[in-house]
Specification:
2 strands; two-stranded antiparallel ribbon; single chain; 15 helices; 306 residues; mainly alpha
């Protein structure tokens, strides 16, 4: 596929959207990749990273290596993801602490639209695809109800967390950041980014690379051999994740850290009309609509550049 500079700018923009989504515990960058039309190319590109690439580098030089890698695509996308993730993670931390209802409203609308656009790519609905949809929804819903583990920043644990979280980040519907929270690694990673702790960041990145190269091959095989069932499962993941991003929550368990800051550990979704405090329903509905329309714009952008 021959791409122009403008096309790579669009890919970087999609990377920015993916990075921003992955920074929020509850939203998957994989969903954004799917809606914007680059998901299968991304999975295929990652899964093609193997020993033959390095043989090409030694035998035919960097230019042939870069072409076989689909390097321009990866570079444009990763630039957007990294810039967005590192910068938006701090903003997301602030918004989740001081304006959680509003940010969750935006992402709730975004995910509602995502369900439609991912689901419509299923070519033929059967009893089996419906069962896979239900299974995916049940798994994602169960994950969204899990309590948060205590923070752990040991090197082995960070490596393991990176490998698990990156798999979630490329799965539509399952948030890598939320998996980090459940594992108790989100704060450790946030602190490492804030303090520029290179050692911890490299350990986490190492785990992420191993997890990504392994899991992408599984996904590529599933898309090739069980396209509709895989899509049904992923649609279910997205549907089940709605519980996590529902804006109105009741906190059942709090954690108070050494600085006296309270953080919710276990929450349940409640009606906006039984929500304790200002439900901000008008602003919430407006932001849901904006999130919904954002997906429509990304989908249109994806269809125009395929």
């Amino acid at each position: 596929m021959q791409r122009r500079f403008k096309d790579y700018l669009v890919i970087s923009f999609k990377g920015l959207a993916m990075g921003a989504a992955d920074a929020v515990p509850g939203v998957s960058g994989g969903t954004i990749a799917f809606i914007s039309g680059i998901y299968e190319e991304l999975i295929s590109t990652i899964s093609n990273v193997d020993i033959s690439l390095f043989k090409t580098l030694l035998k035919d030089g960097f230019k042939a290596f870069w072409k076989q890698l689909n390097g321009n695509f990866l570079f444009a996308l990763l630039t957007g993801i990294i810039v967005s993730f590192v910068s938006f993670m701090r903003l997301a931390k602030y918004l989740l602490e001081y304006h959680p209802l509003l940010i969750w409203s935006f992402f709730f609308g975004l995910i509602i639209a995502s369900i439609y656009f991912v689901g419509k790519q299923i070519k033929k609905w059967t009893i089996t695809t419906v069962i896979f949809l239900i299974i995916g929804a049940a798994i994602a819903f169960y994950i969204s109800t899990l309590p948060v583990l205590s923070t752990n920043s040991s090197p082995f644990f960070l490596f393991f967390a990176g490998a698990i979280a990156i798999c979630a980040m490329i799965l539509p519907g399952i948030s890598g950041s939320f998996i980090l929270i459940i594992l108790g690694a989100y704060k450790a990673l946030s602190d490492a980014l804030h303090d520029f702790d290179i050692q911890k960041l490299l350990i986490f990145i190492g785990g992420a690379i191993i997890g990504l190269l392994s899991f992408s091959r599984i996904l590529k095989w599933l898309f090739k051999n069980y396209h509709d069932l895989t899509l049904a499962l992923l649609t279910g993941f997205i549907f089940g994740s709605l519980n996590k991003v529902w804006p109105w929550k009741k906190t059942l368990t709090w954690h108070i850290n050494s600085e006296g800051i309270k953080r919710p550990i276990l929450q349940e979704s409640v009606s906006p009309f039984t929500f304790e405090g200002e439900n901000q329903i008008v602003f919430a509905l407006i932001l849901m609509l904006l999130g919904f329309l954002t997906i429509f714009m990304l989908e249109k952008l994806g269809s125009e550049n395929q």
